[in-house]
Design goal:
There is one protein chain. The protein is of the alpha+beta class. Residues about 235-240 have low confidence and may be disordered. The protein has six helices and 16 strands. It has helices spanning about 5-10, 15-25, 115-120, 140-150, 180-190, 220-230; strands at about 1-5, 30, 35, 40-45, 50, 55, 65-70, 95, 105-110, 130-135, 150-155, 155, 160-165, 170-175, 195-200, 215. Helix 1 crosses helix 2. It starts with a strand and ends in a 12-residue tail after the last helix.
Length: about 240
């Protein structure tokens, strides 16, 4: 079976595809002793290595939900300070699907399933994530309405979203996109500062986890994920023609 090199690294549980492209550009990936190039195609018989360590395909897919504490960096880079590697242990290597900024907390999906990660991270798929937000002053109806309609940030307008008031300084917001520090920027436009930001739900996944707690997804949760993402057959990446 043949794979593009970024698919191979994702399938092997090294990292997500976007990160693998960066690693290739940095010259950290080798195929049969030669520097890999983006777009290279490999077979299972080829010798692939990252940072000098051989990489092999792992066909067992695992899925975990983790409540990331505030201050932890969403990265599996062992050299980064206070990242996920220092806080979690899984039977085989996994990588986070998407990001949650250092000052935010809440749910992160961890897996070695490259196809599912790619589908869930694709901004064109509009998969919903819900956050509980606490701001520095009393919110009003105009602010909530403005968030729902969309806010101009990062040279674009955010998609319409669902916003529900919890109390005078707290609201829940459900987004279908993941712009950099999106909620913080949306609030800042309207002169609000985010004091606490918690991701409470990823699609249908809404577990009640304590800070720092990790648990595997149930078979039912995984099945729903694959069904909604149309990635039910994830034992192998799609063969490159």
């Amino acid at each position: 079976m043949r794979y593009r090199i970024n698919q191979f690294l994702s399938q092997a549980g090294v990292c997500a595809r976007r990160k693998s492209n960066l690693m290739i550009k940095e010259g950290r990936v080798f195929i049969n002793g030669k520097h890999a190039q983006i777009g290279d195609v490999v077979e299972t018989t080829d010798c692939v290595s990252v940072d000098g360590s051989p990489v092999r395909l792992r066909h067992e897919k695992i899925y975990f939900l983790y409540y990331k504490p505030r201050g932890v960096v969403t990265s599996m880079n062992k050299n980064a300070h206070n990242n996920l590697v220092h806080h979690i242990q899984t039977p085989i290597p996994v990588f986070p699907v998407g990001r949650l900024d250092k000052l935010s907390e809440g749910l992160i999906l961890l897996t070695n399933d490259g196809a599912l990660s790619h589908a869930l991270s694709n901004p064109n798929n509009h998969h919903e994530k819900t956050y509980r937000v606490t701001v520095d002053k009393e919110i009003n109806a105009d602010f909530i309405t403005a968030l729902r309609k969309g806010v101009n940030i990062l040279n674009t307008r955010t998609r319409p979203c669902i916003v529900e008031t919890i109390d005078c300084v707290t609201f829940d917001i459900t987004l279908t996109q993941g712009l950099n520090r999106q909620i913080r920027r949306m609030c800042q436009v309207h002169n609000y500062r985010v004091l606490r930001l918690i991701r409470t739900k990823i699609m249908h996944l809404e577990p009640q986890l304590n800070v720092g707690e990790i648990r595997p997804l149930t078979d039912a949760e995984v099945l729903i994920l694959h069904t909604r993402l149309k990635t039910k057959d994830t034992t192998d990446e799609k063969q490159t023609k």
